[in-house]
Write a structure and sequence with these properties.
Number of domains: 2
Helix content: 25-40%
Largest sheet: 6 strands, mixed
Oligomer: single chain
Order of helices and strands: EEEHEHEHEHHEEHEHEHHHEHHE
Distance between the termini: 40 Å
Structural class: alpha/beta
Number of helices: 12
CATH topology of the largest domain: Rossmann fold
CATH class of the largest domain: Alpha Beta
Shape: globular
CATH architecture of the largest domain: 3-Layer(aba) Sandwich
């Protein structure tokens, strides 16, 4: 019946009414966006606004929100405040908190249960896990396993955490900085230079491939960038983070396929190059 301002999948969902909006401009560089977010959070304010009136007009039975990251998307607190004066027929609120792949599968089942579709949820999870298993089993036979730095924000620099280290492992690589199940850590450039990874993978949170490409000067202009092993060997990959890697949903299977193509191009080709990712 309705969606958040960021919901754009599957195609056609954009026709639904958006009942949320950010309180800050989302254009500009990575650095500018980071400064705006930190300024509003420092005042103990939410980054997002929920249109309580529009939400009430829709009269939903179920609202899906999240508690994983309050600066990435509308939070449970935002939704609860919008529902504060509802005294009758309050909707069921399903709050998701995915920090790992296991959490993602549990959340799929949680949503399905709230929609009285538990069997369909179980079937979907089993299908997704089987697809991932096929990639993982093939990748496990390949050597060597390249070291990978996954960049989730360019300025200031942040590595990818949560489900990303698991995806890298399943795709046949070794994530240098991310820790499975833990939030994305801030990263010092000097640590990247010291690690000198085989692959640099860049998928900034909320950025598509075009915007990621436009931000790359924030990395490529850094001292010693040209000396990194990944740069010298042409193994820097840019990806559509907002479509695949930043959102903990069913398309994480496609994310794994993309990583497998990048890390082991001799063994995997799912046709994602040029769409889901591209070499720098």
């Amino acid at each position: 019946m309705g969606r958040s301002h960021e919901c754009d999948w599957p195609p056609g969902v954009e026709a639904l009414l958006a009942v949320t909006e950010p309180k800050i401009p989302t254009d500009g560089t990575s650095y500018e966006i980071d400064r705006r977010i930190k300024a509003i959070v420092a005042e103990a304010l939410s980054v997002y606004r929920v249109d309580a009136g529009a939400l009430r007009d829709l009269r939903p039975d179920v609202i899906v929100t999240q508690t994983q990251c309050e600066v990435c998307a509308v939070s449970l607190t935002d939704v609860e405040e919008a529902l504060a004066d509802w005294t009758d027929d309050a909707p069921t609120v399903v709050a998701l908190a995915p920090d790992s792949l296991a959490d993602v599968w549990a959340d799929v089942r949680k949503v399905a249960a709230a929609l009285d579709a538990a069997e369909r949820g179980d079937a979907l999870v089993e299908s997704l896990r089987n697809r991932m298993r096929r990639v993982e089993e093939r990748a496990a036979t390949l050597d060597p396993r390249p070291t990978v730095v996954c960049v989730e924000w360019i300025d200031p620099l942040m590595a990818a955490g949560n489900w990303m280290p698991e995806l890298v492992e399943k795709a046949g690589g070794h994530d240098v900085f991310g820790v499975a199940g833990e939030h994305s850590p801030w990263l010092e450039w000097e640590a990247v230079v010291e690690a000198d990874p085989d692959v640099v993978f860049v998928s900034p949170c909320g950025f598509d491939l075009e915007r990621t490409r436009s931000e790359m000067s924030g990395l490529s202009s850094r001292p010693e960038w040209a000396d990194l092993r990944a740069v010298r060997r042409g193994r820097v990959a840019l990806a559509d983070g907002v479509a695949f890697f930043n959102r903990p949903g069913p398309r994480l299977v496609e994310s794994l396929e993309i990583l497998a193509e990048i890390l082991h191009p001799e063994a995997f080709d799912y046709g994602w190059r040029g769409g889901g990712w591209e070499p720098l």
